[in-house]
Design a protein that fits this description.
Blueprint: E1 2-8, E2 17-22, E3 25-32, E4 35-40, E5 55-56, E6 59-61, E7 68-70, E8 87-88, E9 90-93, E10 96-101
Antiparallel strand pairs: 1-10, 2-3, 3-4, 4-8, 5-6, 6-7, 9-10
Bound molecules: FE2/S2 (inorganic) cluster.
Length: 103
């Protein structure tokens, strides 16, 4: 496990997101009311990107077919997705968002 700096915290406004590429693929980092959440940027239904999906509370809605995922747990909340997405712990250090890699 290691912490990886991914973006300046003030570079991701509330309601916005950033994507970063790690060794195992892309991760989407969302700002929900100043709190950061990171999940794999791959929908477990059919592989669509989740970055850019609408945010509602602590859920992201897949832009392709509308499955919802909990940003806190990664759990799939509505069909057509049933499997969770990987999520990553986040923290802010010196104004930079970091995610815990190596899950
Ligand atoms: S690819 Fe996400 S709901 Fe189908």
């Amino acid at each position: 496990m290691s912490w990886v700096r991914v973006a300046a915290a003030d570079g991701i406004a509330p309601g916005d997101y950033a994507t970063v590429e790690l060794e195992n693929g892309f991760v989407a980092v969302f700002n929900v009311d100043g709190e950061f959440f990171a999940i794999d940027d791959v929908c477990t239904h059919d592989g669509g990107g989740l970055a850019g999906g609408a945010l509602e509370d602590h859920q992201v809605i897949c832009p392709r077919h509308g499955a919802r995922f909990c940003l806190r747990t990664g759990k799939a909340l509505t069909p057509p997705a049933y499997e969770p997405v990987n999520r990553y712990a986040t923290r802010v250090v010196d104004g930079m968002v970091e995610i815990e890699d190596g899950q």
